[in-house]
Design brief:
Two copies of one chain form a homodimer. With 596 residues, chain A is an alpha+beta fold. Chain A has helices spanning 7-17, 20-25, 35-53, 57-63, 78-87, 106-119, 121-140, 143-155, 283-286, 288-319, 343-375, 379-414, 417-420, 426-434, 443-456, 461-477, 484-510, 512-547, 553-570, 573-582, 586-589; strands at residues 66-68, 71-73, 158-163, 179-182, 188-198, 207-215, 226-232, 234-236, 242-245, 248-253, 264-277. In chain A, helix 11 (343-375) packs across helix 18 and helix 18 runs antiparallel to helix 19. The longest helix of chain A has 36 residues, at 379-414.
Chain lengths: 596, 596
């Protein structure tokens, strides 16, 4: 079964729930984004996902990447698909207009990324890394580097990577060993070994632009001594074309659980020529902007693969005949009823769907704030969105990827043994989605960032902004009687989140271990509250669409049904999350090292 | 890193928590099982796990099984390991003494299975299937078949399979097509295709004994027309040795997510000669005894792999240096602190360990009742344990395999990117443990069995037996002040379980959909309550051991610490499970087929 672009759900969210045109109209965009234009772009992207990427997804997993004499070959079909992707102009979608990009808002590309990840996560990674590298170059590099590299990256002729991790330094980048020695011509000579480099070497583009973290010989100790360098695979000749091979080589490919068609490389830098990006010793903070975008992508990957699994599992459940409905045969003329009659099968599918819709909405909500933070004419509004973003992103990354993985596991479970064998693609989705919880900062790190840096350190100021948004929604809709039930559930969980925030700040101020001990449950509680917020918005839009007499009542009723399931069956988890937070750090910290 | 047999924890549970010798002494066993003898057996089994099975686990996953011209080859090293396993006499451990078995209780073999599954799940499956087939033959086959087949199965010279599933009939076995036509000599001629047959074909034994579900041409419709047949790969000659090849052939191997060294076969029966086992049309109920044992094994698999992941993850967390403890450096002389200082890393490890210990205890508790139900001299006590077992097994199977998978995922998360690559073995554990939630009745089916057949149909009578056991424990220990805190938590969750049982029975009596809609949360609530019960027993034994002035205080304190974590951080989930049950079936059943 191949992936189908969920355009109907996407259009509904974009236009009915988030009033995209109004939102875009308030920003400074390069061109007016009408509903028709957006529709055309998304439909075209949907076709790429369905017709170009999905067909080579399973074969790519099976074949994996080849490695021979330092050269990496992508699986059959990837090169052709990439050519078509580039030809369609997708690689520069959100790029800076001044350097040949198309200046589209992140909202649009987020939806496209979700589809591409859902159809073929391995393929999508090659493109996402390029986007991230281009973003970083555009934000921090010199005009010369920007002019030299951005147009080719936006055209997709060259691709990008982020080279951060070393074998002994993952979460703690302050420990990296890679050295950058200044050369006389203003460039640097880089030496060291980086691991887990996505798209570090491959055969899709004529050049690869590595962004590499390294330290100068006399750099300050720890994270404050890290600088960022641009290190191309091929140096450029005087005309800006491909010149001599730089001293970067791929030592090996990682053998891993999933995303097998994505080349995860060990990269060796042996006196490779690099160019400083941004200020010396400011490498880590130069990555912060990019990281919000990359992390958003990981949540989108979880959601995209969840959608893919939902499509397969729900179709299977409608067709697979086994047993009879609990209250007697529904299809007496058939040998058995479709398994969709069984409440527990529905539980699995509804869990998937209610989290997919809320996850997509949360990703859009975050992407809107990313766009506002860059493209709104009002500085105060930009700054406000920036602060909201710094709170939303760790939750979107961790919670959407957690719920995405959970959905992939549930989808597999719907198919039973048929979900465990490779044929239906569901086990691949489980393997492919698993990485989204790990890379770009493992989800535990996101939770710690949320509870520590974003909450404790700001004394809850950032959360207050989000609560303002929620309260605004509640007071705007409090008088609508159809919303009463939903708003009361929302108010409850919102109050619980506020109560827990106060508690976490109080406990954490006295004892830093309290932050880490509460962080994961706190992140989940915020994720659940945000999903609840998103469901408020969806249900409101649904009720308004029904009232305005629009067609498609079955679709809207279906959405409300999925929402009801969320409130009945998923939201109650908030109560026990609060209990886990209240329990504090004692039982977590008590054990000695030897007792583990 | 290779698997280490968790003998210390096992011995503690067996002797201090479950008073194994006393328990065994009350049964009619073939030989007295002293603590020393048990210790010797378990140590020997531990060596097999560590030295024979663990070393070929990763390579077996990588190589997988070969398939050529209908022949299946197991990965390198499997044949030799199997020879040693057989030579050690492990294959007939629980077998009937009258046919050359060793008559050991299930309690002992359950612990051994957990270790073998933990060290090498693929290998262990070949042996578990043989045990299950032998058990079924011993319970239901004619004396002639027993004399012919059991000794060879117990010796491990021949192996066994269970051939149930067909491509269109998994959960609903009533739909199977395989036909059995009576022959003149009293045998049957079987034709049909079975899928997902574990160990259906391989090169470890000289013969394979298939137990096959099939229907006579005039059999009643549905599950009541199914009979069970013994179909050997090779027919036997007059001397009982290997004779002509029977008409059974392996059509292909499944390509699957994990347990790649276990051959999962499509088996074709083309007028294959078979022998009836038990009464005609009674095939399904002939499998019931065996199923309790097989399901116990799947819970053990989850727990065994969880233990393996815990060992690797906790060792990694003690050694991996990244970042600093929240309250300042603990190892200032090192470049960074081990990640075990971080509360969230501890949360993951403690979640794993507290569920592993409780899961092992629940498996032992179930195994004791299996043994009592067969080997206690008092008929009433046997019958009581049998009823308890029918309640315990679906929970043990589903909850231990769910928590086992969860633990493998958490273990992988502790290692971050290093958990996603194959090197450390953690991603293999995730893939290998996933199947335990699916086969031998998917966990949703276990939950339905628990809530429907075992609870609603008996109007809660079986649960009352379990509650009796719990109340007995509470009143026996109520006066111990060290137990006060724990017992009060236990009483709370027990009351909640009783309340929810009453609710499920009440709602389910009016509307059958209510059972299925509540079933999964109900199973989880019972699993959590049982884990809580097990933790009561563990903590009591720990307190008593400390009081009696035994050494190893650090070990006992460690156990209490893990228990405290369970009560603080995992038990609260019960509150939201109850809310999910209370929410009822409405939001689950409302959606139309088209809305999925």
């Amino acid at each position: 079964m191949s992936y189908r672009a969920p355009l109907k759900d996407i259009q509904f969210l974009l236009h009915k729930v988030f009033n995209a045109e109004e939102n875009f109209a308030s920003m400074t965009l390069s061109e007016e984004l009408s509903e028709d234009l957006i529709k055309a772009i998304l439909e075209e992207a949907g076709k790429i996902a369905e017709e170009l990427l999905s067909p080579i997804n399973q074969a790519g997993d099976k074949e994996g990447c080849g490695f021979d004499g330092g050269k990496v070959s992508t699986p059959q079909g990837f090169k052709d698909a990439y050519k078509d992707y580039v030809k369609g102009g997708w690689s520069g979608l959100t790029g800076d207009l001044d350097y040949g990009g198309q200046g589209m808002p992140k909202v649009i590309s987020a939806l496209i990324e979700e589809m591409f990840f859902g159809a073929n996560s391995s393929f999508c990674l090659y493109t996402v890394l390029t986007t991230g590298a281009a973003l970083t170059i555009n934000e921090h590099a010199s005009e010369e580097l920007k002019e030299t590299y951005l147009p080719k990256l936006y055209q997709g002729i060259w691709s990008g990577t982020m080279c951060l991790t070393e074998s002994h330094a993952g979460t703690d980048l302050g420990m990296i060993h890679t050295k950058a020695v200044p050369a006389k011509d203003g460039s640097y000579s880089l030496s060291g070994t980086k691991i887990f480099i996505t798209a570090g070497e491959h055969d899709l583009t004529e050049n690869i632009v590595h962004l590499v973290l390294a330290k100068l010989p006399d750099a300050p100790f720890g994270p404050k001594g890290i600088s960022l360098f641009l290190v191309p695979k091929y140096l450029l000749n005087a005309e800006g074309g491909i010149g001599a091979k730089n001293n970067v080589s791929c030592g090996s490919l990682e053998n891993k659980m999933g995303i097998k068609a994505s080349a995860t490389c060990v990269l060796n830098f042996d006196d490779a020529t690099g160019f400083l990006v941004g200020d010396l010793n400011n490498g880590l903070s130069n990555l912060f902007t990019m990281m919000n975008y990359e992390r958003l992508s990981m949540g989108l990957q979880g959601n995209g693969l969840a959608e893919s699994s939902y499509q397969i599992a729900s179709a299977y459940a409608s067709q697979r005949l086994q047993g009879r409905a609990p209250s007697g045969p529904e299809y007496a003329e058939k040998a058995a009823d479709p398994i969709l009659v069984h409440p527990d099968v529905r539980r699995m599918l509804l869990t998937m769907r209610s989290n997919i819709l809320a996850g997509r909405a949360l990703s859009l909500y975050s992407a809107f704030h990313l766009d506002i933070s860059r493209m709104h004419p009002n500085k105060k509004i930009r700054a406000r969105s920036e602060r909201l973003i710094s709170l939303l992103i760790p939750v979107q990354k961790a919670y959407c990827s957690d719920k995405g993985f959970e959905a992939c596991v549930l989808g597999q479970q719907v198919l039973g043994g048929h979900g465990y064998v490779s044929e239906w693609g569901l086990e691949q989705n489980v393997r492919d989605s698993r990485i989204a919880q790990i890379y770009e900062g493992a989800n535990g790190i996101q939770a710690l960032d949320l509870a520590g840096r974003k909450t404790l350190r700001t004394k809850g100021a950032q959360l207050n902004l989000l609560i303002e948004e929620m309260d605004k929604f509640i007071s705007a809709n409090n008088s609508k009687k159809e919303m009463k039930f939903y708003l009361s559930k929302f108010s409850d969980v919102k109050s619980l989140l506020v109560e827990m925030t106060t508690l976490v700040i109080k406990n954490g101020s006295n004892n830093p271990d309290e932050i880490g001990a509460a962080s994961y449950s706190y992140m989940e509680l915020m994720g659940l509250t945000l999903y609840c917020f998103m469901w408020q918005k969806i249900i409101l839009a649904t009720i308004e669409a029904e009232k305005s007499g629009q067609d498609d009542k079955a679709y809207y009723d279906g959405l409300i049904g999925v929402g009801n399931f969320f409130f009945d069956k998923l939201l109650p988890r908030s109560i026990s999350l609060a209990e886990e937070i209240r329990a504090g750090a004692k039982s977590v910290m008590n054990a000695t090292f030897e007792q583990f």
